[in-house]
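Reopening this one. Same input as before:
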Amino acid sequence: MSTRASWLVLAAATVASLPGAALADIPPDPDSPDANCSKEKQCPTGEFCDYSFMPGQPESEWKHVGAECRTAAAAKGLQRRCRDGGNYSGVELFCPPGATGSWSPPGTKTAPAPESSKPAPAPASDPAKSAPASASESPKPATSSCAVGSAGAGAGWLVLAFALLRRRRR
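Same output, byte for byte:
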């Protein structure tokens, strides 16, 4: 094999091994809390806090967005339940532990609201019921939220095919 063909094969293999372009702002799974992020669906007594991420900007310009709100929510004992927004900005909903709304993950029943005239029943000792809200979320899909296409592999195979065709013609 000539030196030129070796370089072409090496370049094709390099391009083929590179990951494809990342797809941004993929919508959440319809059965996830993030797709159903509202006070009515999650917890009526919750609080929304802003979040922001601005790549390429100094962290001091975007890190403070909603920081006071998140700190106050943590001081009140609230837990992050869901977020409504994209990769770069939106709001997060913080709820009291165990608070419920009109939505529940598929396969679970929504707990009925306690009557105001009766005292709330004592919590059961069942560990599944006393787990934090994040444990009751539906399982995450096997793919990440930053899905990677196969554009790099396709381009690599294309370069390799052209290099081999060119070599055959000589």
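So the earlier flakiness isn't reproducible anymore. For the record, The first strand starts at residue 47 and ends at 52.
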